[in-house]
Amino acid sequence: METLWEKVKKGFIIAVEKTDELTKMGKLKFDIAGTHRRIKQNFEELGGKVFDLIKSGKRKKPVTEDKNILKLIKNIKCLEKELNKYEKELNNLLKSS
Asked: Is 17 left (phi over 0), alpha (psi -120 to 50) or beta?
């Protein structure tokens, strides 16, 4: 038969594990929100640069050959991969709990 102390220890261990799990979920949700924000900022910057290039009329090459445009597209792709990783981690945590 379990003593009161053993029951308290088990309860404490379970509480610590659950707290750790919830902390990880919270951090992942925070990372996901931050990554969404950075993707949005990159899209806004991309749209502004494309608009400026088209508006100026000084474009000799297609917009897709502009170094700044290509850099922003690359950043967005990297951020989308990062977002995907965070979302998979969160889903795995949710499934395991």
From this structure: alpha
